[in-house]
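Forwarding these from the shared drive since the link keeps breaking.
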Amino acid sequence: MRKISPEVAKHMDNLSNEAGVISALAIDQRGSLKRMLAEAANKPADETTIVDFKEAVSKELTPYASAILTDPEYGLPATKVRDKNCGLLLSYEKTGYDTTEPGRMCDLIADQSALRIKDDGADAVKFLLYYDPDESDEINDKKKAFVERVGAETKANGLPFFLELLTYDGKMDDVKSEEYAKVKPEKVFKTIEEFSKPQYDVTVLKVEIPFNIKYVEGFNGDNNVVYTQEEAKKLLKKQSDLTDLPYIFLSAGVTSEEFIAEIKMAEEADADFNGVLCGRATWKPAIKPFAAEGEKQGREWLSTEGKKNIENLNDALKGAKSWKDKLEVED
């Protein structure tokens, strides 16, 4: 069992509910959120609307979440209006990745550090890594070293390190394609196995569901079936068995109903997952009324439908396990 300091354990308590399950809300999107708000308003994006939207999400939904994840660039005002019982994670990475070279290389926010994130009142550092385990050693060694540095810096400041892993294939353009759906599970498995190693000092892995639900029997719509539901559950169980770290699921842009179906499959598979960090599945439909009709209408959607989404998700987390089953506090 991995060991953590009492200070890190205290922060983990702040991020989880009484059962030790993480039911967190993600609103750290920046570039994509700006684009969505601009499209909904049918006018160029501005810096004010994205800040206001994050504040609205935080104010209306954090009473029902164990923690909120946001960014230091636009999200700090939102942290000031979160519920007093809601923990805080802050992103350390810049939004997006470098498109001028292969490898989807990430970078850190220039004027941030783990110390500054701690000083802003955060309970954890979150770093997002795009990773293709089958890409060249030259590319992946850089990424491994990067994560080692972030992990060491976070540990030195007495904070939990949440590592978000997003897989891709360097030879494919579309991660939503049927072609990628067929190779995604092994990509996810290899990536989780690598970053569960002790040298990265990861506290919690934020991971993808190891399949694309839009190619799972019963959820596939007009798409071909790549996996039956039983095969999907076996993939969830295999994912669970590959790491001894606490891990939580990200929603990856699916609907609230699809995400809840995935969580229920994980429970039925007896996967030892420890919660969720859910973003767009909870609040995305609020963008249109907020941007096109006004803040009042957006907040009304969040306080009704958004609240319902997060409460339904919390109900679905009854099968999640406590992070305390996987981490031991040092004496």
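-- next protein --
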Amino acid sequence: MRAQFVLSEIWIGLRRNLTMTIAVIITVAISLSLFGGGLLIMQQVSQMRGYWDSRVSLTVFMCTKAAPSAACEESGEATNEQRDEVEATLNALPEVESVKYVTQAEAFKDFQERFSNQEAMADAIREGDIPDNFRVQLKDPDQYDKVAEAVRGAPGVESVSDDQKVLEKFFGLLDGLKVGALTVAFIQLGAAALLIGNTIRLSAYSRRRETGIMRLVGASNFYIQLPFLLEGAIAGLIGGVIASGFITAARFFLLDKIEAWFAFPVALSTGSLMYVIGVSVILGVLLCTVASFLTLRRYLRV
């Protein structure tokens, strides 16, 4: 009997404040979609960082006849002795995990494979334009400067580049998008909490006669508040379910394109997607329930 009464009160509250309830659901759905999007970007960035941290390498380019640098103009094309000396120096460093020598032909072939989908760039480069080089895998990518200084300026060395410095710009852009999305999401969540509070307050006011009768017959605080709390929880749950649809769409139609554009396997797993959806739905339910509870403490003092 009590369960039936609570359910009937929930239905009455939702029906009387239908437009406000719909507004709450839409606001919560948008807020959670933005919040979930920020979490997705956070998961994507973390996964991409983990992928590249194990693959980031330092590249030591050797001088060639066509090298434009001043160091190469003075010393000329790198000799075999200079290559051997650079390789020995790199192998002697404790920060270096492995050293691989790449010939000009191998470097050109690798370039063609990497940019096979960009014909204009691939056609602009000819064999011999890319110098031979040493690809150095570091035990710790943060030790780049120490390793680079050991070979920078050595005879036969044109330049030293670090993949991580290029990737940091890309990760910085993604971090900015993540912070922006989460900031907007939290503002929206705050607006949703205020809207939920107003909706519950109107619902409580429209049923003040019923709640007054319940006070007179000795109903407990929790029993009086329960229908209102469940109304908020239901609105939050529906908003969370709608948001999960948007989050799933963002995962398959947006983030999956990153993998296609950059041609490396860092797509988010189903487990990561379910984690983001679960956090978003739970947050929606908690947000609506807590906002309802705080509002009821003020407007339903018993």
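DSSP finds eleven helices and four strands in the chain. Residues 31 and 188 are 5 Å apart (CA to CA).

- D.
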